[in-house]
Amino acid sequence: MPFSHQVFYNQTIFNLTPTKVLGNLNGGSFTSGVVAGWASGPTSIATVTFTSSSTNTNVTNLTATVSSPTIAPTIVTTDGGATLTETAATTFKALAAGQTLTMAGLTFTAGTSGATAAQVATAFQSIAVNTTAAAVNAAKTLNDAAGGTFTSGTSADWSSGAAGGAGGAVVTFTSSTANSNVTNLTSSISQVDATPTIITTDGSAQASTESALVTFSAMSAGQTISIGGLTYTAGTAGATANQVASAFSNLTVGATPSQANNTPFTFASAYVVTPGVFTTSTSLSGFIDKPGDTTSYTFLATGTFTIASNAATNTTIAAVRGTITTLKIFADGALAEQINYGTGISTSSFGVTNSSVTPITTAIINAQRAEAVLQQDSIFRLINDGGGTFTGSTATTGGADQMLGGSSNDTFTGNTGNDYINGSSGIDTSVYRGLRSNYTITTTATTDRTDPSGTSQLTGFLVSDGTSNRDGADTLINIERLHFADSKVALDLGVTQSAGKAALLLGAVLPGQLVYDSSKQALLGVVINLFDSNYSTRDLAGALLRLPIWNILTGVENPTNDHIANYLLTNVNNGVAPSITSLTNGINALNTERIQGEWLASLATSTANQTHINIVGVQLTGLSYI
Q1: Could you tell me the pTM of the whole model?
Q2: Residue 98: is it exposed, middle or buried by C-beta count within 10 angstroms (0-12/13-18/19+)?
């Protein structure tokens, strides 16, 4: 079903008619040719079906031609000499997903969405000689979202300066051999195989028209692909498989590059918009679900929006109205389509029921569909995915809001009424107006309100305000933090979550259960924040081992690894001295571990330490910190 039709799920209708506008920012565009012999249908996750224009005939099979352009970085060398150290000014280029680039001993592999030239330059900037790939990744927090990571090697013979130049894509490397004409810096880059997979169903005279199911691949910058008479050229950042498929969708015989670059945008199957909540903003986003498809789709709409409210039916619609100028659709985080509305769609409306806390029913869906028909608008439940701030009703009667967050770190203030808040992913916070002592926190089982059947159950927390007509009793799902007027509470206490890791690490190091003492709440806050910033348990364990605290903890003026291992094992074992074998293993680990902190990190996350600090019990009510 194309987006130009209404699709609805849980109180949500999406009824916008977009036109795709291809260009460099959208992955690339058609640069030559005319569509001949074949027409294409809508896209469905990197695939498009082409149908022959010759009915009931076994025609020549559809084929594709792909170029392999030179995409290696440009290196301008200034030779060294008796009084001059050699340098190499390197201008990087974009890499496609999975593509590798090796320079100065290090190999960088682009992430699942590829890497821009600036991202590659940032990865290679400011690296000293003899730095390992793992050390660079850790120091720069390189990951898939940052364009990729270094996957092997150790920097050798060259150090690098800061990125700059045009587009931030230029890095100057300096030889580690001063005042000498050394062997020039070179690069090695893997080529991207962008050849699509084509599965042909032959036509025949027996009422069967030939078709070809084409599954596209990612393309590197400047790479071209020709199918059905048209040639598509990837943009300067390359093109994802979804972008290439989207470009080749909905083409008619005879279409020119100009026409093909501006065609209606549709998906192959019905998509639905998962409800969220919103604030007035110029940037709004949310989720798009395709039944039976595990791909994670999100959208990002930009424009000018204002909050409005309608009550044309028995269902109250709180809505954001305004003008959409651009709509981006992402598949598993990668840009699949960018839709440009030109001067904007001024009749767009986005809304959500917020008058009921019961699971979404068929009656609510039907009421909202009627509302959409009356208003002749689209209805959408929105989130601000850039880290939304959501505020519920302050009415002294009613005020029961339903809120759904996005993939970023969202903040919810439910205010009056018994609210249902689902933070989704990210590190999400629910804010309360009273002191911590005014509230009770308990675990609860509740219905998953994004499930239209109303049968799925989720486990969350119930936060109940003891003061009437203030914050009510809120049901929280996927909420990691609570902020009260005087303190904070962390609920993300799983052994792989930030607060859980902080409690385990400090619980292993501090005597007994001192980690839970009120005097340590500020320290907990600092360590939780470090874990939120993607430091690993090993990173922070190593930092703790380097602090001058072990003479106090062990009671030995100049403690060795023997003393530290004995103290930690005894502490985790609730005061019982370790066995000779355990102690020997601990000492050996501290003496020989490749990266400091590995053994302490393992001890902190062990079952014994989880029992030592009773992490399961703390998970039931949360961990206080400031």
Answers
A1: 0.45
A2: middle
Tokens 């025609």 belong to 59
Average pLDDT over residues 66-70: 72
- Helix 498-509 to helix 537-546 angle (10° resolution) is 30
pLDDT band at residue 304, thresholds of 50, 70 and 90?
low
For residue 328, give both structure tokens: 């981006």
The arithmetic mean of pLDDT across residues 9-13, rounded, is 28
Q: Are 426 and 409 spatial neighbours (Cβ–Cβ below 8 Å)?
A: yes
pLDDT value of position 294? 62
Report DSSP letters for 590-617, one per residue: HHH-SSTTHHHHHHHTSHHHHHHTTHHH
Closest of 273, 262, 226, 194 to residue 26, by C-alpha: 262
Q: Return the beta strands (E) in 354-397 as ranges.
A: 389-391
Please report the pLDDT score of residue 391 as a whole number: 62
**525 φ, ψ (degrees, to nearest 5):** -60, -40
Higher-confidence residue of 421 and 123: namely 123
CA separation, residue 571 to residues 515, 539, 550, 613 (Å): 12, 21, 13, 10
Q: To the nearest 5 percent, what fractions of the chain are helix, strand and coil?
A: 25, 35, 45
Residues 6+ apart with CB under 8 A from 9: 272, 273, 274, 289, 365, 452
* Helix intervals (H) in 510-560: 521-532, 537-546, 550-554
Q: State the Cα–Cα distance between residues 417 and 509, nearest whole angstrom.
A: 42
User: CB 580: neighbour CB atoms within 10 A?
Assistant: 8
Return phi, psi of residue 168, to 5°.
65, 25
The distance in angstroms from the start CA to the end CA of the chain is 50
419 or 451, higher pLDDT? 419
b/e per residue, 202-227, with b = 16+ CB within 10 A? ebeeeeebbbbbbebbbbbbbbbbbb
Q: pLDDT band for position 223 (50/70/90)? A: confident
